[in-house]
Amino acid sequence: MSVNTTSSTTFQPLAGRVAVVTGASSGIGEASAEKLAELGAQVVVLARRADRLAELVERIEKNGGRAVAIAADVTDAEALKAAAERVDTEFGGADLLLNNAGVMLPAPIEELATDQWKQQIDLNITGLMNAIGAFTPQLVKAGAEKGVADLINTSSIAAQNLFPTFAVYAGTKAYVSHLSRTLRTELGPKKVRVSALEPGIVATELQSHVTDQGAREWLEGSKDTMEWLTPADVAEAVGFIATLPPRVNLQQVTIMPTGQAS
After folding, report:
1. Is 169 known to be catalytic?
2. Which of 21, 37, 78, 219 is the most exposed place for a label (fewest CB within 10 A)?
3. pLDDT (tens digit, 9 = 90+) per residue, 61-88?
4. At what angle do helices 167-187 and 114-121 cross, to 10 degrees?
């Protein structure tokens, strides 16, 4: 086991916990994996890009944390099941799942960008459900044995607020938020806390995937009126949620740039 030598008495409230982070190769997932490892968790980072995951694991271990990478696509249900089996075999199961993999592809609905509709639904909804299906049994087991487990789903402020051309993306995120609230009623009695994170604009790779010119111009213009959130800002919230006393469940956390009105 690696020893963190960056400080003489590092506070590690998540020591003994096993966290799985999807979408961990960049952005919020990457920053959250580093934060959870800093707090003492054994972190399993999961995404498609094996090279980026290897760099992340190396960085976490260099900073005294513990991490392992599993290259997998969350839209592949069998790959997620195999990942869950590995986590169960090697670490005794996960007690925290940060469901973070997602994509944002806004476009006017009249453009009929059906391939992009499907991509968002497949990743933001089906991929999310694949991870929930694969790891929920482990979370329930951990809740029974440890008295606490966490399912944290990354949603968006778009789940609540209205943004032209973001209809399909917003619809997928509304699904994530409502699913999270409903799952909490089912899993809470089993000591599994369920939280939905709803960030405003965060500087991640999501913006680089946008192909619609109008949406790109709107996003670029917003930089002149506000300072965007960083992935590390959201990661701080993830760490806060996970380290609360087991009796406390933050059901829904909205994180906004100070300058973003809605």
Report:
1. yes
2. 78
3. 999 999 999 999 999 999 999 999 999 9
4. 20
